[in-house]
Amino acid sequence: MKLNINKKTKEILMLALAIVFTSILRAVAIKIFIAPSELAPGGISGIASIIYNKTGFNISLSTLLMNIPLIILAYIYINKKFAISTLICTAVTSLFILILEVVPIENFADFRGDLFVSAVCGGALTGAAIGILLKVNCSTGGTDIVSLLIQNRFPNAKVIFLLFGVDAIIAVIGAIVFEDFTLLVYSVITMLASTFTADILQKSFVSTVEVKIVTDKVEKIADFIIKQLKRDLTVISATGYYTGDEKKLLITVLRKRQAVNLKKFIKETDESAFFFMTSVSDVIGFGFNQSVTPKSSLGIKKGGKAFSLRDIGSYFGKKNKKENIPNQKDADTVAARKNISEKIAAEQQININITEMTAAASDFENKSGIRKIQDNEKSAENEKL
After folding, report:
1. How far is CA 148 from the centre of its chain?
2. Residue 303 maps to a domain
3. Do 197 and 212 reside in the same domain of the chain?
4. I need a surface site. Which of 149, 186, 241, 267 has the fewest CB within 10 A?
5. CA-based nearest residue to 197, from 123, 145, 147
6. How far is CA 168 from CA 77, 175, 182, 190, in A?
């Protein structure tokens, strides 16, 4: 029996599964690898590790308490859905950390004597969690939110480098608190492992490729792409620099599974064809993503209010008033349409002028011809006389 699950329900189930799975990864990373080894690899987990090792304060509770104010800021300045999903993720992570605190893990998993293993494994698990959550419009909270708030203020900033910068500061503070700068080195290794793993996962999620084909069998390959793969393509005239031969260049964007079928078809259809495939991301258009999330893959509002600490009080102190602020995209569209209208009007006027000039020239030629005939008739009469 086949279950009919709509798109929205499927997205919710995928989000829930991602949150549970990544929460387990982060809980294991913090409780088994990071905190017992006194590592502080940035983020809220790094701060929680410092507090735990110095005061014995519960890691799960400190993680949740430190994330709450940041999630409130995310709710105001970033995206409500993102903030709510991050709050759920943080709460579930804290729950799993609490469960691991009750379980006597030290009996079968004690890595406190091996800082390198703790650093690599803790970083890899954290990075895996970050990479998965980024794909479902969620985050681990903490410095992720701080970086996004900064990016909302400075759109050209890269989130991944902002995360590394903020985390590096926390790692330095941890080394100072623990009075052991060896831990700083291992904390940096943890951060590098996390960043590397997150980046690898992000690239592995890319399932779209651009295909460029130089072939003489344009019609057959184009028909296969349109009729069999249900994709469109662009055909461009191209010239081989060495041979000077005129060729056609076909460009299309496909899913990876479709690209495999196309590759097989090209080899069977045109053995002399030259083609290559390139992985691409953020493909916007029919058959792919239908909307653009500006500034960040985590859903920062387009044209949203830039983050400022002095705005927090005014947000809670005043009622939100909706203002009819014109959408920049709409304004650009109106301006573009106006320019097109003006160009069309100008072209029409030019056509009218050309028509009038042509008519005037024709009239002039006709009059000249009539005068020439009249002159010839008068000349003939004078000769007769």
Report:
1. 14
2. no
3. no
4. 241
5. 123
6. 25, 11, 14, 11
Tokens of 13: 């189930």
Do 244 and 178 touch, CB atoms closer than 8 A?
no
Tokens 């691991």 — which residue? 100
Determine the distance from the C-alpha atom of residue 147 to the mean position of all C-alpha atoms in its chain, rounded to a whole number: 16
Check: pTM over 0.70? Answer yes or no. Answer: no
Same domain, 138 and 86: yes
pLDDT, tens digit (0-9, with 9 covering 90-100), for 213-259: 998 888 999 999 998 888 888 888 888 888 888 888 999 988 887 88
70 and 159 inside one domain: yes
Q: Which residue has the tokens 């995206």?
A: 79
| Pairing mode, strands 246-255 and 234-239 | antiparallel
CA distance linking residue 50 with residue 187, whole number of Å:
12
User: Exposure pattern of 49-80 as b/e (b: 16+ CB <10 Å)?
Assistant: bbbbbeeeebbbebbbebbeebbbbbbbbbbe
Domain-terminating residue out of 249, 280, 311: 280
Burial label, 9 (beta-carbon count in 10 A; 0-12, 13-18, 19+): exposed
Domain hosting residue 222, numbered range:
208-280
